[in-house]
Amino acid sequence: MRGYRAIKYILFIFCYFFWVVSAILIAVGTYAKIAKEKDVVDTLMVDPALLLIIVGSVMFLITFLGCFGALRNATCLLKTFLAILVIIFLLQIAAGVVGYLFTDMVMERTEKLMMKAIVRYREDWDLENAIDFIQKKFQCCGVESYKDWSQNMYFECSDTNPSLEACGVPFSCCIHFQNQTVLNTMCGYGMQQQEESLARHDIFTTGCLEKIVSWAKNNLLLVAGLTGGLLLLEVCMISLAAAQISWINKVLRRQKENAAGMRSWISCRRTREHLWLRVVAWIRSRAASRS
């Protein structure tokens, strides 16, 4: 019984933790969505707020099934929770295998997605902040090079572009020196017109895709550890849910067996009482006939 309670409450704690995290994701995504202008982009892959809301909602539903199912011993909810986790686990494994076998295709799709994000820069504050964070963090600019910013209507390097930022790059591409106390947001102006050998003195010229791949290769143990930790956590939750379902079914079987045994005992006792009454009646009838 103690083992069953441990399984039950450990599963509940895991699910409750991720349930709270999912609620926070939904709240942050909703707040960011409301704070935006009405005419901003609404595409899932390039809208961080919408992505947070959808991921948070899916997590909320799944973890709610686990929480309520574990707490109330509801096998139907636990089986649904278990099935969803198994599907997600298999999809992650399949995605990893496909990514390993078709690396070139994955890189091409990733490049297109990142280029699409660059095109929509300035249309979404969250997307703009995300791109600026990536470029600062990985010290990169654009997807393949700093000249990718010409794909954006504000930074397009052409004579017909009236934007003040024409032929420039965002300030997040700029190199910030240690003795620099004031942030110069105009540091990227006109950088696309310069050759890479000259531009690299003021901005990062390497593309972010190459930088991110290089970082992943250099931190392979960290990436593998995080991925393995996530998969291990999913396996633990799957095992706990399966164990609780098995325990509940075992208890239900015992209850049915005990009920069947009790019914059999009651039936046997009634049969004995009936036989005893017949014997008593026969004895009385014999005694009456002799007298």
UniProtKB/TrEMBL annotation:
Disulfide bonds join C141-C157. CDD domains: penumbra_like_LEL. The chain crosses the membrane at residues 9-29, 49-69, 81-102, 220-248. This is Tetraspanin. It is found in: Cell junction, Adherens junction; Cell membrane; Cytoplasm; Membrane. It is a multi-pass membrane protein. It comes from the Eukaryota. Keywords: Cell junction, Cell membrane, Cytoplasm, Disulfide bond, Glycoprotein, Membrane, Transmembrane, Transmembrane helix. One of its GO terms (biological process) is protein maturation. GO terms for molecular function: enzyme binding. Belongs to the tetraspanin (TM4SF) family. GO terms for cellular component: adherens junction; cytoplasm; plasma membrane; pore complex.
